[in-house]
Design a protein that fits this description.
single chain, elongated
């Protein structure tokens, strides 16, 4: 029960810090650190017990932060607003899609078949 009561709030605080950038301000983190340090100074033995019980929540929060960084969309797939570009394109053309992969020099030359038919 102690692990649930200590680890749950720690996980909640960690996930809030990971998901909401507004909460990651230095002032908010400083207030949390001062509260934790003050509580540990007043109740040192209980603080050690609570810290030990809160370790699973802390580790899961660190794992969530690491996964968020690792799975972030590369900059090539973001639009101008910084949001992930849609995976489905409303209009598609094979010519324009393949034109990006064809070198400029081969786009300007005519194929052998076109040159033979033109002569």
């Amino acid at each position: 029960m102690l692990v649930l009561l200590c680890s749950g709030p720690m996980l909640l605080i960690g996930l809030v810090l990971v998901q909401w950038p507004l909460v990651r301000r230095p002032a908010v983190v400083m207030v949390l650190a001062v509260l934790a340090t003050g509580t540990a100074a007043v109740f040192p033995w209980r603080a050690l017990l609570v810290l030990q019980a809160a370790t699973p929540g802390l580790l899961l929060s660190v794992l969530a932060a690491g996964l968020r960084i690792a799975l972030r969309a590369p900059a090539a797939f973001l639009d101008a607003a910084g949001q992930a570009a849609p995976a489905v394109v409303s209009q598609s053309s094979t010519r324009t899609a393949l034109a990006a992969f064809v070198p400029e020099s081969s786009r300007t030359r005519r194929s052998v078949a076109e040159e033979r038919s033109a002569s």
